[in-house]
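Case study 2.
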Amino acid sequence: MTTNDLPILVEVTRGAIVESRHRGAIVVADSNGNLLKSLGDDALITSTRSTIKPIQAIPFLTSGAADHFNIDERELAVVCASHEGEPIHTETVAGMLERAGLDESALRCGAQTPFDAETAKELEAAGKPCTQLHNNCSGKHTGMLMTAAFRGLDLDDYVSSEHPVQREIITTFAQMSDLDEGIPAAIDGCSAPTFAVPLRSLALAFARLVNPPAEDPRLVQTTRRIVAAMINHPEMVGGTRRRFDTELLRAGHGKVVCKIGAEAVYCVGVLPSEQFPQGAGIAIKIEDGANRGLGPVVIETLRQLGVLDEAEVAQLNSFHSPVIENRRGVKVGDVHARFGLE
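Prediction:
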């Protein structure tokens, strides 16, 4: 399927003028790999980017490292996060590193200006540099480092795809997504591996995140801890000031876990319910990488599936139907979903 064959998911309008359109694909699957809904190409290859952080966190728990270092639920949430770099995030990550006898210099994610504009301004005003703690992936990297430290492994190259920590992550992700371990890989923005996978495989992985195979009790216990951490501490997964992941976790009232990835890829796990007894995984890709299309598509998908009710959708209206304003603050347009799931 070529780009032009993918369906239009989002339109951007200015008055009566359609200025832009964003195409993409949506896949909904259960934990057995059955496609429940699909729009566009379910085999569309996308990079996983940060969507799989909750799955990358699994070996942190199964290795025993998390319990060895007495990681609490709030800290586990930041391991799964693409955080804003606010003090609640940087202080939590720094405390975790200290517990393992490490500091910020051990990280290999690179320094980053905080996503949170207010925090960035405060740093600039104080003449303080941005550090690796401010990197939105510092929690994930800390989990990887602590796993390596607990296992007595090399700490300098823990992001290498050949490092035992990364090999265990690859094995885990392959099992969760029904892929072999020879998954094509590249280097993410934070220097850890990212993977090229069909969209349906991402959906399957998130379906199993919320409903893992019962015959694997260790995985069941581990994923329950990860899901609970994200639901109970949404501010650690995103931030305190209007981050989409955070607000969707809050509005979902324990019904969903969700994770954004760069270049407009997004995954949702719908916990088992009357409507979805086996739970469901949702994977969405906006083909041109435009993040402005994600909110409308994700929320509209959840609305059409009946996962979010009208009150919950209304709570997320600024993400569902973002308003375009001109420089005088006048509303001049909208970004809105334009699709129907069969």
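The chain has one domain: 3-337.
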